[in-house]
Amino acid sequence: MTSAPHPFSIPDFRRYWLARFLAVIATMSMVVVIAWQVYDIARTDYGMSPKQAAFQLGLLGLFQFIPLALLTPVAGWAADRFERRRVAIFANIVDAGAALALGLLTYYDALNLPLLFLLAALHGTARVFVGPSMGAIAPNIVPPESLPRAIALSSIAWQSASVIGPAIGGLMYAQNASGSYWMTVALLAASSVTISMVRPVYPPPMEHKQHPIRMMVEGMKYTFSERFLLGAITLDLFAVLLAGATALLPVYARDILFVGPDGLGQLRAAPALGAAIVAIYLAFKPLRHNVGVKMLWAVVVFGVATIGFGYSHIIGDTVFGDAKINSLNMAASMAIALSMLVILGAADMLSVYVRSSLVQLNTPDAMRGRVSSVSGLAISASNELGELQSGFAAALLGPVGAVVFGGAGAIMVTGIWSKLFPELKNAKTFEPQFRQDHTVTPAKEVTT
Questions:
Q1: pTM score of the predicted model
Q2: In a domain, 205, yes or no
Q3: How far apart are CA 203 and CA 363, in angstroms?
């Protein structure tokens, strides 16, 4: 039996990995700074209370979700219709334009909430097209037996960049408010050049030309007809939708933990650090057995860690028996918050690794762009709508109540999904064995 080649032995995968790494550093830096500016401007320029300003963070999530909801089917169709590198490069250029505008407005102190929401929506539009196009490239540049390891390595690119990006973004913003945006523009340009060096990745040819709307509908129908795919994708959607602790990190950084924008960068980087550690481990020791059960338990741990983060400042005060703000309980609270976020990110990475591998390996190549767009919609919707839910919940329950409520909700969803979709806990390996009730021929699914 021939062992699978290591993905890094493939030059195109190395270029793909580097392009992803650079782009994620850029966008994660940008996301942290936008969120901080929304909350800080709401508190200072508009004189809002913490609850009212947290509500603005919810609106930020809504403005990023609207293009996601409208354009995800279009993005999946584009990834299955056009050369996939070009779609990703075009999206990077649009994102760089949004970063350039934000940098100029920040430099001239001309930002306000409407402009921030508008440019955040443009950023969301660009990211809609990156996911399906980049997700559909990887399975075409590595052999199938190397794909789980390639996904783990791709996750290392994502998660390690998600550690570096927020930390650098927060630090640069604290030193020079517009500097983080100039860095974003430069890194997105470098990512575009790097992905252009990968060999062209065309979607499979179609026997008959189809109307784009029909192709989009087929992608949705295929995903919803496959119970396993539907269960795996919606589990992530509802768990993260409820447990959107990261949406309220600007509130914690400014008004609860009192650590400022550089502290926000550390808080935002902590989940990615935990995820990167798990991704590195999985790259060397991929999961092979009982993958479904492990995915479900990972979501439970994710919920528990979210609750721990919500109470981090209370635990820090309790450790030193003093609710006053001082250096000791502030340090303890920050350490506990960071620890919980690291655990949260590690658990999320394990869940994402299992789900991504199963979704990719249970999807025909002709449908990968569209199924990836549906999966991307679920992931992004859980993030953006999670921000919306967290902002609204914080306006009603306060930021701490919103975080704790969300963590408990994620645990509850896992229990419900294990009953609704027994296919999830019965998934023993990554083998494509879950289309027993809805067997389709990939060519007919796309071309008839």
A1: 0.76
A2: no
A3: 14
